[in-house]
């Protein structure tokens, strides 16, 4: 099988083909993020990298089996600054999408898969569907992972006249995974290695989050992200910033993002007990209070999930 992957990132397409048991003879990737490319090269040295999509001559891959990719959703996502978010079929986001369309016309693959953010504007979604000739399917990755992540997928098969027909993709079976199901023991191995300064004001009882009242008994497992409080600022004040929102491991994680600030901006913060408060866990923050669970008290730890813990 010959695969052409645009906006390849760390080559998750190759991961998917391997996990599906589909052999790949050639995999050509276009990606310009040096860290993503380095990760891909380390894991899959057989992949051929070609750089920026704007420089690609996709006629080289004419007749390939698959064209896959999802142009950066940064410009279309609801998480974008409203003043910068693109909601019509123009701008950088649309130009990037047009490179995928160019590849589709030049490579003429047997199949294609295009993915992007569910939160894009209706106008952009309709424009993409008009380009491909059919509507997408929405799949929430919460069905197969511990993360809430709604995404749109356009999957097409080439017809004799050069158009594409929609492939019928069923919804995956719900694996009912929660944050607690993906944690290693110990789990604190992927964070910054530094804790926030513990101050009297930050540890003041009831500031944003009361760990004494937090208990697994009060938060039954559910298919949504369970927000249970906010991490107070060092001066004792409490903000509603995404970076300090605390979630329960008995629910789903919030959507993981590549862009964002510190603390939990990219991942959310999650509360979990630890039975060894003296162990130097690598965590975002250790709260000097106890939580009650199963008739026992435990120190509380807050941590952020890394991209290596999504599965």
Descriptive report:
The structure is a single chain. The chain is an alpha/beta fold and 311 residues long. It folds into 2 domains: 2-166, Rossmann fold (3-Layer(aba) Sandwich), CATH 3.40.50.150; 176-311, DNA Methylase, Chain A, domain 2 (Alpha-Beta Complex), CATH 3.90.120. It is built from 4 helices and 13 strands. It has helices at 12-19, 34-43, 92-107, 122-132; strands spanning 2-6, 26-30, 48-49, 66-69, 111-117, 137-140, 150-158, 164-166, 227-230, 245-248, 269-273, 285-293, 296-304. The strands form 2 sheets. Strands 1, 2, 3, 4, 5, 6, 7 and 8 form an 8-stranded mixed beta sheet that branches. A 5-stranded mixed beta sheet has the order 9-10-11-13-12, with no helix packed on it. The longest helix has 16 residues, at 92-107.
Summarize the structure.
The chain has helices spanning 12-19, 34-43, 92-107, 122-132; strands spanning 2-6, 26-30, 48-49, 66-69, 111-117, 137-140, 150-158, 164-166, 227-230, 245-248, 269-273, 285-293, 296-304.
- The H-and-E topology, N to C, reads as EHEHEEHEHEEEEEEEE
> Strand portion, in percent?
15-25%
Number of helices in the DSSP assignment: 4
- Overall shape: it is globular
Provide the gyration radius in Å. 22 Å
pLDDT averaged residue by residue: 77
List keywords for this structure.
disordered C terminus, alpha/beta, eight-stranded mixed β-sheet, DNA Methylase, Chain A, domain 2, 13 strands, 2 domains
């Amino acid at each position: 099988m010959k695969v052409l992957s645009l906006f390849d990132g760390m080559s998750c397409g190759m991961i998917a083909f391997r996990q599906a048991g589909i052999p790949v003879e050639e995999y050509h990737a276009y990606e310009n993020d040096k860290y993503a490319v380095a990760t891909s090269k380390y894991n899959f040295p057989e992949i051929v990298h070609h750089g920026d999509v704007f420089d690609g001559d996709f006629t080289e891959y004419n007749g390939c089996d698959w064209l896959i990719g999802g142009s950066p959703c940064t410009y279309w996502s609801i998480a974008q600054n409203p003043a910068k978010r693109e909601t019509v079929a123009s701008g950088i986001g649309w130009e990037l999408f047009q490179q995928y369309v160019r590849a589709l016309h030049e490579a003429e693959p047997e199949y294609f898969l295009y993915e992007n953010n569910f939160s894009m504007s209706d106008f952009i979604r309709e424009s993409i569907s008009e380009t491909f000739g059919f509507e997408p399917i929405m799949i929430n990755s919460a069905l197969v992972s511990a993360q809430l992540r709604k995404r749109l997928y356009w999957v097409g098969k080439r017809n004799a006249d050069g158009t594409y027909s929609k492939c019928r993709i069923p919804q995956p079976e719900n694996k009912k995974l929660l944050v607690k199901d993906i944690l290693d023991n110990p789990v604190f191995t992927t964070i910054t290695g530094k804790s926030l300064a513990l101050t009297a004001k930050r540890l003041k009882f009831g500031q944003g989050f009361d760990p004494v009242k937090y208990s697994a008994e009060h938060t039954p497992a559910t298919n949504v992200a369970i927000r249970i409080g906010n991490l107070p600022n060092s001066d004792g004040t409490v903000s509603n910033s995404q970076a300090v929102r605390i979630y329960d491991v008995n629910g789903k994680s919030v959507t993981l993002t590549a862009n964002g600030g510190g603390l939990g901006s990219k991942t959310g913060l999650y509360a979990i007990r630890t039975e060894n408060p003296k162990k130097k866990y690598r965590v975002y923050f250790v709260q000097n209070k106890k939580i009650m669970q199963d008739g026992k008290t435990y120190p509380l730890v807050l941590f952020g999930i890394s991209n290596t813990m999504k599965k």
